[in-house]
Amino acid sequence: MNNKINGGLLFLTGMIIGGGVGLLLAPTSGARTRRRLTVVAKDLEQGINGVAADARLKINQVMERGWRVAA
Question: Within its chain, how far is the Cα of 71 from the centroid?
């Protein structure tokens, strides 16, 4: 469980850093940069939502097992 969550967080961190560096080094207009930032932000949001959903699922599974053991 921790490896999957850590892997997802590392992926998101790399995505943020890579996107930032790419935007800083790429010579584009302000309007185009804003559009690119919007796309990167939406991709990031989807990635975060996916990691959060996986974490919720794993937490629920662990809690269910705990309740069964405690009963």
Answer: 36
Q: What is the pLDDT along the chain (71 residues), one digit of tens a residue?
A: 556 667 777 887 888 888 777 777 777 777 887 888 888 888 888 888 888 888 889 889 999 998 988 87
Read off the tokens for 46.
């989807």
> Which tokens hold the place of 31?
């309007």
The answer to whether the beta carbons of residues 5 and 51 sit under 8 Å apart is yes
CA 44 – CA 15 distance, rounded (Å): 8
C-beta of residue 47 within 8 angstroms of C-beta of residue 12? yes
pTM: 0.53
